[in-house]
Amino acid sequence: MTDERSSRTCCGLTPTPAVEDALRTVYVLSGRAEPVTTSALARELGVTAPTVSAMVRRLDEHGLVERGGEQRVTLTPHGAGHARHVVRRHRVVETFLVRVLGMPWDAVHAEADRLEHAVSDALLERLDAFLGRPERDPHGDPVPRDGDGRDEDWGVRLDTAPPACHFVVERVYDRDPAALRHLADLGIRPGAGLDVVAQAPFGGPLWVRLDGRDHALGDTLVRLVHGRVAP
Prior knowledge:
Shape: globular
CATH topology of the largest domain: Arc Repressor Mutant, subunit A
Number of domains: 2
């Protein structure tokens, strides 16, 4: 699969920020194995359902997505190529903002969302080379490469990890700045190792141990943390 910078020449659809945001969001939600519906897209993009429906219809007409039952949306192979390139720009920009400009990881998603649409292929290549071709961004998300058609692997979500296991954090979903700040304060970042202590009954928090201290994590937080169970 070859990533495309623009759909203008091959699809006839101008790659506006709204188009690119929609493609990226479908890609990320699909990678997380979450239902990609018009309502889910509207919630993630912060727009109305009719606006999303009109956008999905346009993307479908240009061969970038397919619409299914229950308002489900999936990327076509061609649409996935475009989406991966948008994702690549977004994650390279996030990495630059953190590593070079020293911005906190909870502030870069919104900034990258604005900047990614203005980054040319030439600038992207220079940024990528300057950063040493990073494999992952500050949140642990893999940086796609041209011609790389692999699906994203989000691994095990913390709330599904078995009790009394050692869990290595690999990725943290980056859509909630306040949650990212709190997790960072606790030391829960990609690369951190923690022990799953116990799940409190009746919908209570998940207790984890990190650096000898116990922390209670609510449902919102544990659903953001992904990684692997260490042997």
